[in-house]
Amino acid sequence: MQQYKNKKTMMTYIKMMVFSAIIIAMGFATGCQTQPVQETPDLSDTGSAQLMDVDFYAMFDYTAQETLHYEGAGEYYRTDTVERIDDIKSPETYRLYLVESNQEDMSDGESGDLSSLYQLKVSADSVSYYYKEGIETVLLKKPLAVGNTWDTERLDSQYGFMDITATIMAIEENGDIEVRYEAKTEDRSVNLFSKVQTFRFGATDGVVEVILGDNDTVVTQRLVKTASAPDSNYISHYVNPSETLKAFYRGDEMAFYVEDGTKKAWLWQSEHDDSSLYSAYEEYIAMLDSNDIRSVSRAKVMLNLFAEHAENDFELVERFTDFYEWMMGNFGVDLIIGESDDPITSIFEYYHYDDETGDLVLTAPSDQNSAEAAAVSRLLSSNGLGIYIAEGYPYFETMATYLDRNMPMTSDEIKTFIAFKKQQYSIFPVYSEGYLIQQPEVIADAMYLFETAAASYPNEPAFDDAAYYADYFFETLAVPLSFEMDGTKYYAGGYIQPDFYNTYHQYIEKYPKSKYTAIFKKIVVYLDSANGKYTEALNQYLNDLGYAADAEMIHEATQQQADFKAIERKATAAKPVRTNRVEVSDGISLIEAIAPDTEVVLKAGLYQIPYDNFENPYVSCEDGTLIIKDLSGLTIIAEGGIQADLVTDAYMEVIKLQSVSDIYFDNLRVGHIYAYCVGDVIAVKDGHDLHFDNMILYGCGYRGINLENTEDVHVTNSLISDCQASAIKLDHASNITIANTGLLRNGEQVLQFAATQDVHFENVTIRDNSYMMYEGQNGLFKIDDTSNIIFDNVAIFKMVDQPMIEGIGQIVDSDGNIIAEK
């Protein structure tokens, strides 16, 4: 015989065959000619040549975990691990072996998992591949004589059930028996490897040689040795197969082969149009178990067979993809965590974190520390099951590479569809609980791919999702109001963060023909005109385009700007002159510039306090709070009359001033990113001579200003708004002036005074202070009888239904008249 010439074609046939329970995959080899058929004997003659006394139980006398090693050409080997499963089947008249056939081909760079599972039934009169009661392939049958024939059926991995004729071709002097199995079909499309097979049985060694094909086209594999246990480097898929059947294979594994074999036989034995193929495949996947990991693999194998018969197989691919995604969304984790109270510990038996990418990665079977874990790893990876952990629990998900490896790429439409799906699986979820888990530039590139896929097939419903994802990702980029990553909100205090802004520019340059490019250009114009701030004009532009740009933080920021502009300002003390002057444009530079006798000038823009600890002799950052301490003579001012924003994502204070004097803040908007916290916007302890002019101090600060053991503080031409508890708290403070200022939309107890003297409110508006405090209160102002408070032209609007004062004390006007008392 000649060596098979087209190795890749042959590998395709072999890989299809090994999935079946009965097909044992072969390698590349030159085979031997089978012996010619002898004359049909007279079976009434029971002479020695007919070997009527052969003992099939002795011929197939396997022990549990015995391993059979077969060798073929091209470095292609097969290892069969035998397991007795009489205990499961409880036969009375035969033995049943479960055989795990494992192959790995290393020739021509081809490699892969070619494992399969089959059952071997041995009785006194016959040997067969066993599927279930009444359905089996009879391999050997008494009486044994050269020329003896019998009809049986074979379950082929590609064609399903095939009627075959078995013929005893030779009986050797040493007791070896050669049997040829030939399919009863004239269909020339049936490949030769499925049409003709020859087995040689040894008198005491079972199957010693298998030949697929005939004449000049064959592949052969021969038994070279047996072992009482698997090799040390051999990891079984199924570990102890009889136990694995109980754990992994609920029901009869062979029954699935029978079900699928019936469908395959129908497929190749009849003529079908595309419509009947589509409906038949849809019925097939509808009957698959929705909570069985093997269903994905079964649907995939059947898809490829159906696709060979369809003129247009795109609809088949789409239906499989829908099924695959549905399975991933509904598949439970019972397979790997069982009844465990600690699913995360269980999941890390099979997965590990990749330190470079930060992704959860399936541990390769060869790297697993147990055969059981290796079996599960192979089962998961071969069926396209990824996993991620959310809120401390593992969930199955689709794998981006699975479709690319397994789908029939027969048309440009399918290739585009699979590329779209791969991108979808790679990037989702985009966010989880408001946290972005993809960088803006990654979202932008995916958005363009989705847009392109949808535009390529605008009338194909399968691409509707691509159009939806493109628009959804655009809204995520253009309106990132509720997303954050690594503790950083992209929409921080009314600003678009630089990585989003830079992504807009990159997109405009990379994708000039995208329908979103013109919109990004307009967004950039709006941002540039407002120093990067997300303005009401930009908000309205996106709303006009149909995107839900409105958000609480947008309204809050724009309302604050309107309230701030409405304040009737008056001149204040002259700005102090400092020896040193430093211009800065980012949060780190601001921190580094803080020093005594220094004026720090901020360009208009966003300044975010870093969460990492940072220290110089006069400044420290602790968990996002800027602490300025032990200095005198500091000015922080925004240039050009345009406010600079100083924000933090801290849970505590934004700015703390400790043991400071001669401090001057001007033209700053200061606040928290988050809508919840327990820290104040500005907290001062042991301070003297502090000036806050043209300021917006906003929530969620627990309080806008909190002064303790502090004197000579002047808050002028400013707005304190949207703080959860109080606008101002004064504790052992004196000589405090609040002038030309609005206290709006703060907590119900808007002012708190304790042991405070000479507090003067002049031209102050107190309005809409109705936020519920965290602790109980019973008055708009909390005062103790040691405090001294003067209200001069103070307007109080929309007070909640509560007393004016909680505690004991009074508020008077500049002439000494009592305004409120308790």
From TrEMBL:
PROSITE patterns for the chain = PROKAR_LIPOPROTEIN
Entry's Gene3D superfamilies? Single-stranded right-handed beta-helix, Pectin lyase-like (2.160.20.10)
Q: Where does the record locate the signal sequence feature?
A: 1-31
Pfam families linked: Beta_helix
Location of the Right handed beta helix domain = 677-794
InterPro entries listed in its UniProt record: Beta_helix, Pectin_lyas_fold, Pectin_lyase_fold/virulence
Recite the UniProt keywords alphabetically.
Signal
Give the top-rank taxon of the lineage listed in the UniProt record for this protein. Bacteria
Q: What is this protein called?
A: Right-handed parallel beta-helix repeat-containing protein
